[in-house]
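Thread: "does anyone have the structure for this chain?"

Original post by V.I.:
We have the sequence but no experimental structure in hand. Need at least a predicted one for the grant figures.
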Amino acid sequence: MRVWLLLVAAVACVSSVQAGRILFLSPVGSKSHKNFFMGIINALADRGNQVTLVTAYQPSKLRENVREVVLPDVDISWIVPNLFAGKMARPLTLMQKMPRICSDALEKEEMQNLLSEEFDLIMLSAGSSDCFLSVVHRMKVPFIYVIPVGLVSPFSDIIGNPNFPSFVASKFLAFNHPMTFAQRAVNTVAEAMFGIVFEHHVIRSIENECRRRGLCPEDMPSLRTISYNSSIVLINSVKTVDLSPRPIVPAVIHVGGIHCQPSQPLPKDLEDWVKGAGKDGYIFFSLGSAVTPSSMPEKYRKTLVDVFGSLKQRVLWKWDKDTMEDLPPNVRLGKWLPQQDILGDSRLQLFITHGGLHSTMESMYHGVPVLGMPVFGDQETNMREVESDGWGSVLLWDDLTPDTLKEKIQFVMGNNEFKARVAHQSAVMKDQPHHPSEVAVFWVEYVMRHKGAAHLRCPTLDMPWYELHPVDIWVHLHVLSRWHAIMYPEVLQLRGQSFAHSKILRVIFGTQMRTFLFLSPGFILDVITYEMHSCPRYKLYNVDVWASVAGMALLLFWLLYRLLRALFRCLVSPGAKRKHD
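Reply from O.Q.:
Generated one for you, tokens below.
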């Protein structure tokens, strides 16, 4: 009896150590991001952890161990880019408005009241809530970044994960691996510029606004400095199905698919409607939660109605209104539809989607081929990855006609290779040593048990860029090589030419000829020989890209020098001639 009491006491002690008080800060973001966050929160709550979620959206249902603090009037849907509403330029507006939106959320009374409470850990959604890093500074507790997308730049920088633009395409560029020289050049510059803008403009603007309004303490270090102290990051990505596997540091934890779940039976009224489709089955069309379907131009809606009405399959259409004037008899509308239950239904023939990360991930999980019609953001990139992976196709809205839409629908539905490929990817996605919820819970509780995870911190966070890459080493080697050539000119002498002639040749070959040599490698290999199926070392580190940039810089410098020299001669020569006369 005494032994059993000791065992019960030991279990109780372990449980009390593991359970913690967690503040989950997601004040600014989209509704779809909350789906991913709730997968993590529910798993933590099931383990007995007390989770307080700060969000802009009302809870869909109440559950034990979860408290949702809703911040009023922090909805960003009005500035989210939307092709239908003509708001594709809104990312710039979003960056301009973000400092004020973030500080407005932090200033809310509901949020300020939480500052007097005690928590063991803070979890912060990355990308739009950086002023809430001041809460991390105030509470002096470990924190974890939660990234609702994959490990994209600049999020890879905050955890010190190496970024390889040579083969990992930006989420905002529809490039697939292997990339050509031109694509790698664009991708490299785009990633660098995005990182610079995010760090030196967005983050600084958010911090300046926060300090101006007295929401950030005076003794607080910069927000960027605080961001580098994240114990770990949880990312919405599945390691085994990433299109381009990449090196990952230990502090990056993959929990993608945590919101995916086995399908349940359809509601009775929907089940009766699906049964009426017979052996032809049905198609599901949804543009997600961030887009208002009725905002699409009438010409697009009319094309969809005409094509859907001509199909022998029934079509289930997620629409924000109860009726549609010219709705075909084989089409059913629904304001809210159980997407995962529909995707898991064996009678579903095709999913037409906007290409959001959650929708493509759920399609893979349930093994359904997709036709993507991206609207904004990373949706086109997501669908290009699906297309490259071989289980879906893309149709851009600019290319939408009755013929192209019907052709694409028939192509995807009738493609057995797509079905086989997505079934394989579904099996790979589900074949994991641990469920994503178990992985998330373990690492969150790991951070709480150890009061942080400084031992997982990557050394690259403390290294300047010129040491990390290592530019200083290459510069020293270049200088040493040039010094050797100057000190020993006979090495460069050709057939007894004088030192002066050798120096002239060295200057010529060190500018003009070397410039063309710098410019040529990528184009020769990619354009002429079409080397597309391997990744040699010079491509991996973008040596040819940076060499081309350096070569063009040298060429421009040389042309500028020649231009200035010619202008100088034009200005000086007339005076010299008059003096001679």
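V.I.: this helps a lot. The CA atoms of residues 477 and 483 lie 10 Å apart.
O.Q.: and Residues 268-430 form a domain with the Rossmann fold fold (CATH 3.40.50.2000).
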